[in-house]
Every structure is written in structure tokens, then in C-alpha cells.
């Protein structure tokens, strides 16, 4: 996010520029009533506004839509008269290849682009709102990780999924939310039998639950594959016509193709549980959020 400010007119605005050089105007912030500041410094998420003459200071942040939120008035903190204020915020570091273009040792706080591929030799910190993000390691040293995280990271989306090959006649039936099982060849297909110990997971991507991580992606050769949720929250097809499902119930496969049901037989359920219900449903077919817990 770019922040524009004129200290004389006190006008301000925000915009974004992606790696292709495309510019998008976001917000006109003139009505926000900015003061007269000699310094504006960002630490990656928060802006510090400082006036070296009056020694006043305030903080604020830019929202994802380009709007501005005021945080704190720091005038009482007793700032001295400073000629330089420098942030130690570190963003994306190391050579980065984005859509074929090489960026040498950049410092990037936020990548606001949709669908890009990046090659990271080293990444200590990454703050991104990118969709369809892919990273690959150094071809010269395959054992070197593609991304190194020093202190952890937050992911907005939901479950952890993995791509699997599908049976030739089953791919179109494996829609998001479908309960899937392994076939004898180790491929996946929709479930058709109650208490099936070959249960593999739930097809990810139904409702508002999109996968946060997808393992074993093979790029352009994914047309006959499907992403199964192996861990986390996912929307799942459930048959509650004969047996109501309540929050907390363990779920297994049912005789209804691609649907789960409440597991009522502990002996048969062992090894055939797909997850735990996070919502109730009674007397109908439908889909509910579940916590995938294969066991």
C-alpha cells in the first residue's frame, strides 16, 4: 500500500502498485484531517507521524481497502527534536523471481497481487495478501527450504489440504464438500458405503472454507487431481435424515454417496472417522463445517 501526503496542503491518499507496474487508486484521505508532519515512517503495519518543530507525534494504520485508522496521540511521550527516524522493519529479503522477473534483494512489506509464482533463496518475513501463492527452493540446492520463517506467521484461510489423483470416472463427482475414499489403486473417489475404513478426507473449497495450504501441487498437471482436506475446518456434505447430527458428534462415511453421517457404532467407526461436527443438522441432506480428524 502506498501513502501519499502533502505537508503544505495536508492532503493525503492511498494507492497500490503491483509487480507489473499497474497503479490502482484506493482512497482520498484529505477529509481525515491530517496535521503538519515533517516525518512519516512505517514499520510495516503502523505509520508514525512526527513533527520535528512541535515535537508532536501520532500513530495510525492503513487498512486493506486503503482507508486510514488513527491509533494513538503520542505527544505526551516527550519526543526530542529528531532529524532522522528510521524503521528497522524487514520484509521480503533475498533474490526473488516473480512471473519470470528477477528482483535483487528487495525489501517488500506487502505483496498485493493475485496469482503469482515466486522463487525465494531466503525469506525471513513475508506479509502478503496474495492469492495462489507458490514458492520453490533453490534448484542448485534442493535440500534448502523455499521459505524460512523465523517467528511464525498467520494464515487467513482455513484447512491444510493435499492433492490426490482421482479415479477416471470419479473426478466430476468429487465436488467441494464431498467425502472421499481411497480406491484399491490408491486414487480417490467419492464415498458410497457406511463406515468405510478407506476414508481419505473431504474435498476442500466448499462454502467460505478455502484451503490455506495445499500439498503436492504439480502445477499445470493438476486437471485429474483433487484437493482433500486433511486437517482443519472444512465444509462437508452430511446426511442427517435418519440420524440428527449435533455439534461435537464424530462423523463417518454413509451409504449416501459423498456424504458423512453421525458415527453411532464405536466398533465400526474405528479407522473410519472423517471428522467432528462443528454445527448441528437434522432431518435433511446438507453441508456443515467440520473439523477434519481422520481416525
Commentary on this structure:
- With 295 residues, the protein is mainly beta.
- It has 3 domains: 2-77, no CATH class; 90-154, no CATH class; 160-292, Beta Barrel (Virus Head Decoration Protein, Chain: A), CATH 2.40.300.
- Helices cover 1% and strands 36% of the residues.
- A hairpin with a 4-residue loop joins β4 (39-42) and β5.
- The longest helix is centred in the last third of the chain and has 4 residues, at 266-269.
- What number of domains? 3
Choose one word for the global shape: elongated
User: From N to C, what is the helix and strand string?
Assistant: EEEEEEEEEEEEEEEEEEEHEE
The structural class is: mainly beta
CATH class of the largest domain: Mainly Beta
What's the alpha carbon Rg, rounded to whole Å?
25 Å
Euclidean distance between termini CA atoms: 45 Å
- In total, the number of strands is 21
Summarize the structure.
With 295 residues, this protein is mainly beta.
Brief descriptors of the model:
four-stranded antiparallel sheet, 3 domains, mainly beta, ten-stranded mixed sheet, Virus Head Decoration Protein, Chain: A
